[in-house]
Amino acid sequence: MSEANGPQPGDTAPLLRVELVDRFERFAALRPAWQVLESRDPEATVFLSWDWLAQAFRPAPGQWRVMAVFRGAALVAVLPLSYRVAWGPDRMSLQTRIASGGRLVSSPYCGLLCEPGYENSAIGALAGLLRTMPWARMTLHGVTVPRRADRLLKAFDAESVAVSRNGGPGGRAELDLPRAFDTYLRRDPDAAIREAIERHAPGGAGRGRLSVELASGRGAKAQLGAMLRLWMVDHAGSRGAAAARAAAARYLHLLGCADRMGRLGLVVLRSDDALLGAFAHVTDPRRRVAHAVLGAVDTQATNLPVATVLRAEAIRWAIGQGFTRYDFGPAPIAEARAFGAMPRPLVSLSLQRRGAPAGQDCLDPIGHRAALRLVLNRVESGKAGSAAAGLRQIIDRMDPTSRD
């Protein structure tokens, strides 16, 4: 357990305590308090829920840490982080690189949970401890609350950390859903989209033999496999076959987490038995939002606007499920706007240290096992010099009382 000072100047909150949690048993013990915090933070998403992150953390010991902020016994903020070790630019030293914890399962949105009214003091306490911790680079991906990201950035001075900030007010798009699809069709999409939906949607005059399947539970697994194969065919040319397979594996991991939670929603479009396309969603019933995370379409079906029809059917499905928001996920903002969606903020941050914290290097002990594997790879490759330097660094950083 570590402590950091709070409150920040101009904040009236009392002293806060920051605990570093990197054992699953302790993370499990936080579940009740975490879930209370989820319910109180209006900016929470399913991707910051305890149940979601448990799937990321349980199989990955030594690769994650949660910075938990307490006011007395009350949990007021959590910042989930993932950890990896890499060789530094000199190829002779090892360094810790931190990212958002949800990236272990490729979560599209990350960030932190915070009790309303504690943002200044809690983020200040987190930053105060982060400044003293050993790491070379920290990346926070997919932060949906830019003011929280900006407050964290302001706690670091430009002389010690190089900062980059990507994204902004229009980094993603959401559609506010009415209670009926007919209302949506009349109210939100532009004229070209509306015409295409009315002409080609299953059940309309021009439907041909189109059918829509809504898959969840056991039935979703086979559909998901077919969808990912279609996605790989479409992306192998631009990405390369190996990169497309690796990306598909990450999507499978992400959507597998949703499936295990009962939060996977697939909308599949077929013509007879042929798969034309599918959209995969992670659903959040508590907040009544459907997050689109992956789409795949048969680009050879040139006589039909597959992507348009499929998106319309996904919106119809979301309305039928009682959701009040539809998140377009990775879709281009211009495309989402055509369906009536509005831009929403999304930022990503990268902090690169210009030097190690005083009195230490940039290797965190949490990554010693991963560091030893990198050293072993160097030994097996015959690179004795860098292997010896890395091993010496690990030994110098070891706590003599630790059993690790």
Largest sheet: number of strands, sense, barrel closure: 13 strands, mixed
Average pLDDT: 91
CATH architecture of the largest domain: 3-Layer(aba) Sandwich
Low-confidence stretches: 1-10
Assign the CATH topology of the largest domain. Aminopeptidase
CATH superfamily of the largest domain: Gcn5-related N-acetyltransferase (GNAT)
How many domains, as an integer?
2
Q: What is the terminal separation in angstroms?
A: 17 Å
Specify the overall morphology. globular
Order of helical and strand elements: EHHHEEEEHEHEHHEHHEEEHEHEHH
Descriptive account of the structure:
The chain has helices at 24-29, 31-40, 50-57, 119-130, 146-154, 181-187, 191-200, 218-239, 241-260, 306-320, 333-338, 368-380, 384-397; strands at residues 17-21, 64-71, 74-87, 94-100, 113-114, 137-143, 161-176, 210-215, 264-271, 274-284, 289-297, 325-327, 342-353. By secondary structure, the chain is an alpha+beta fold. It has two domains: 17-169 and 348-397, 3-Layer(aba) Sandwich (Aminopeptidase); 178-323, 3-Layer(aba) Sandwich (Aminopeptidase). Strands 1, 2, 3, 4, 5, 6, 7, 8, 9, 10, 11, 12 and 13 form a 13-stranded mixed β-sheet that branches. Helix 10 (306-320) links the parallel strand 11 and strand 12 (325-327). Helix 4 packs across helix 5 (146-154). It is globular, with a radius of gyration of 24 Å.
Topology overview:
Layout: E1 17-21, H1 24-29, H2 31-40, H3 50-57, E2 64-71, E3 74-87, E4 94-100, E5 113-114, H4 119-130, E6 137-143, H5 146-154, E7 161-176, H6 181-187, H7 191-200, E8 210-215, H8 218-239, H9 241-260, E9 264-271, E10 274-284, E11 289-297, H10 306-320, E12 325-327, H11 333-338, E13 342-353, H12 368-380, H13 384-397
Parallel strand pairs: 4-6, 11-12
Antiparallel strand pairs: 1-2, 2-3, 3-4, 3-5, 6-13, 7-12, 7-13, 8-9, 9-10, 10-11
Helix pairs in contact: 4-5, 8-9, 12-13
